[in-house]
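fyi for ur records
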Amino acid sequence: MTIYFAEWNADYEKHMVNVLKSEYDVVLLNKLMKHFRDINFILDRKKLPRQWFIKFHQFMKLRSLKSDDILLCSGFAISGFIDLVKNLECHKVLVLRDTIEVLNDSMKNKKKWLCQHEEYISKITPFFDKIYSFDFDDCRKYNFTYLNQFLPFTFSEMKNLRAKSDHFHNTIKTCFFIGEYWENRVKVINRIAPILHQNGYQTDFNLINYKSTQIIHSLEQSDYYKFGGKISYLENIEKVKQSDIILEIGQLGQTGVTLRAIEAILFNKKLITTNKSIKEYNFYSPEQIFILDDENYQNIEFFLNSKFTPVTLDILYQYSPDAMLDTMTSTFL
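which gave:
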């Protein structure tokens, strides 16, 4: 049984698959949308025949798949090539890192891979044998199967990274945040930064405006954060290593754990997060993780001075791609 990762093209996903290749039977398919997506959309919206166009691309790009193989698709990319894979005779698995609400908005209003009258649930999900989600609420609402968030580092890498983190000491106490510009994030940053400064911490808070660099002047300005561009995942990890505290300000309504939270656990960093559902995870401890709400900012100083016991490797394994692959393969044995 081979697991094919279909269009897992973020830099951290490519890193993960390339390392997994040395230990598992996995393949990265990263050109499925090339010469297919745009033409397929045009033919579809002009009501022109697509059968032979689709079959040709299936033969050229997916003929190596056997019936007992797993095609592993990510929730974000799949909208661009669902017509290419929906009728394949193999095990088709969908992994949702985003909520259905976010996917609907992104596919309709940003990527334009769904028409305004289409819904992600009816357009995409019926064609998969198994659907996993990191979000508790979506699992309950849509009958998905819950899957632990997983880092892009194999368990072997995680053990090495953890060992190195035990010997890494920062000379200046720092709290790090990077994320898209949202008004609720600005409010949190403007409120928490002075508290951190009063307790001897530097803040490295970065907001990204994905829409246009030309409208930065119209966004709220502050001395507590700076505007910048995206950085690579490995650059982000270096920032995490050099920090003592990681700040996470999640999407409103999100109930799943993020990569940022697991990164903090891996590298033995304290985490300040707005995600209340993090209490439900087996790595949670109030000494390492502070759940921020409107009423408890005054308690942050006590948290900053607390000591914590690092999460064990046995628990960390459950958030590794190795554990994810075990879950996938055991489903179809």
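The chain has 14 helices and twelve strands. thats all i got for now
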